[in-house]
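Sequence, structure tokens passed on for absentees:
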Amino acid sequence: MNNLKRIQDAMRQAELDALLLIDPLNRYYAAGFPSSDGAVVVTMDKSYYITDSRYIEAARNALGDTVEVLLTDREKPMRLWLQAILDDHKVEKLGAEDKSLTYQEYLNYARTLQKKLIPSSDLILKLRQQKQPEELKFLQAAQDITDQALKEVLPMIKPGVTEREIAAEITYRQLRLGAEGNSFDPIVVTGAHSSMPHGVPGDTKVQAGDFVTMDFGCLKGGYCSDMTRTVAVGFATDEMKKVYNTVLEAQLAGIAIAKAGVTGKDIDGAARDVITKAGYGEYFGHSFGHSLGLYIHESPNCAPNNDQPMPVDAVCSAEPGIYLPGKFGVRIEDVMHLTETGAEVLTRSPKELMIL
């Protein structure tokens, strides 16, 4: 997988001569090879992957003839390779990642290369909004692992087990099922803790009558999954059932209108209206969903402040919630792929209220 042609087309529209990529995920997106250190330079007629001895053999094997792989060492460090490439291609307009480089790094590259860098993070971030078929395969594979991990973890959720133990089991199960790691630290909260959307798993034990909220995901091919399920242990009160069913109705309402061309604000609003009419509007503080891909949080978002149409092939979470401080909270989250005709839900786990 590489996106060099798409990047070059975007560079042509932006009137750039070359694009310098330092961010590891942008380098992976561009060339299709992951490494913790290096640079990618994309010009209008050629691309380069610059790395050190730790990755040189793997990079050459992986990239073949699509990208020229260059070795940095003491005799020819990164700076000299970059200068040589810019000189060879007579680069005047050089784009750089203003949003992922630190301010100091940005200034250092400008000074070292003696170029006025053109802020270009938005160029590649906009490309990353629309997922390509191979990206969708990785996203689905990651979600399939997360779905199976949930299925395997549910039997262990019972009175006496701790939040931390459940979180550890989720991580273990995902790795055992083929994940490359967590896409974020699992959130597992029980009882009154479940009213905190991003609570941290601790030593609190599950009790009968508790809600347990689990928000987790994994990486496959570098791409993220994300899912939240809230389950009841032993029994659920009428209030718990009402809140749960309200959240589920809200999620289904948002998914029902979600498609490319609909604004993020309208998708969020469809879900928010359900929760507000049920009397819980003040207890839904976050947005309906966020895009995800190589990062767990990308753009654009299904949020009240996004009045722009969602692009075709965006992948976004659908995760409304209601959080009653000191009592309990409920969140239900799926991941959806937006097409011109609707939302394809990648998450396959059941979401009717489960009482374990």
Q: What stands out?
A: The first strand starts at residue 18 and ends at 21. The first helix runs from residue 4 to 14. The chain has a mean pLDDT of 97. Residues 157 and 166 are 7 Å apart (CA to CA).
